[in-house]
Amino acid sequence: ELQQKVEETELLKMELQMLETERVRLSLVEEKLMDVLQLLQQLRDLHISKRALGKILLSTLESCRDPQPGKAHLFEVLDTLYHELTAYELLQSQPLEKAQNRQSLSNPLVISC
Hints:
Blueprint: H1 2-45, H2 50-63, H3 73-106
């Protein structure tokens, strides 16, 4: 009976460890999903076109077509989408910054540090 209790305890410990691992994985997915949603909100504020957003999504899905071994496919897709959206946001914000810099340089009253 004591041996049976020890085995049950070991099984419960293994199950607890598996649940903790799954909790951590889901936490990482949730965190990445929140990052993606924040980027989408920022891009909406930049008035991203539906066509550009569609291209980003298709590019993401194309690059994640074959899941890499040892990596959660959902997390891989979210991570790739995050990087695609970040790259797009950087491309869109650079021309604005350059235009603002040109405008500030053309204004004689603005002193640049």
